[in-house]
Amino acid sequence: xxxxxxxxxxxxxxxxxxxxxxxxxxxxxxxxxxxxxxxxxxxxxxxxxxxxxxxxxxxxxxxxxxxxxxxxxxxxxxxxxxxxxxxxxxxxxxxxxxxxxxxxxxx
Amino acid sequence: xxxxxxxxxxxxxxxxxxxxxxxxxxxxxxxxxxxxxxxxxxxxxxxxxxxxxxxxxxxxxxxxxxxxxxxxxxxxxxxxxxxxxxxxxxxxxxxxxxxxxxxxxxxxxxxxxxxxxxxxxxxxxxxxxxxxxxxxxxxxxxx
Lengths: 107, 143
Known about the structure:
The complex is a heterodimer of chains A (107) and B (143).
Chain A: H1 4-9, H2 12-21, E1 26-27, H3 28-35, H4 39-51, E2 55-60, E3 63-68, H5 71-106
Chain B: E1 8-14, H1 18-26, H2 28-34, E2 44-45, E3 52-58, E4 65-76, E5 80-84, E6 97-105, E7 108-116, H3 125-142
Antiparallel strand pairs in B: 1-7, 2-3, 3-4, 4-5, 5-6, 6-7
Helix pairs in contact in B: 1-2
């Protein structure tokens, strides 16, 4: 698992920006206004998010519009699913073993 | 899929009385019977609040060892077990937390397993909690 995504998200303001962008693409000014964070700060956070591949930017006339990229989230999900699978397998084994315990007790 | 509070949750109904499920989770010799590739001699469980546990999975082909461990944060016999889950001596604040809840239904037991907070900043509750919440919703949207 590449921890770049996790590191980029583990800062409250950046996380808020990502949550906001889930609703749709926005400009720096719009983000700044919605979150009440100063524009230079927002730009700084967007740069980190962009370096981590979490957001991408495109120009529309003289506006720069930021939006989320799905790839890092798909990777995160796959990573989480691998943990889930590990535990699911263990619980299959637990279930089997409980049957044995139960039989032992009944004897 | 994850709920809004946990990174993921697994719910299972087990065909065994709750006391047995509790023993399977808390007694070393029982754990050795269901934890995969985990020799009994690597398992040490001090099941009380603040107590530590550790176990080591061993890859039988390569001999590689994977130690796991943590601290019990809450122990309510037969009902609830909350523990950190990570490397054996990792600091508590920085570790994922597992909450295991057992509910008796006659001779069967409902087991709910929550895993929360796969990453975060030590000592920063907001980031720690907020991160996993946000991750869940983000993951839902994109997959």
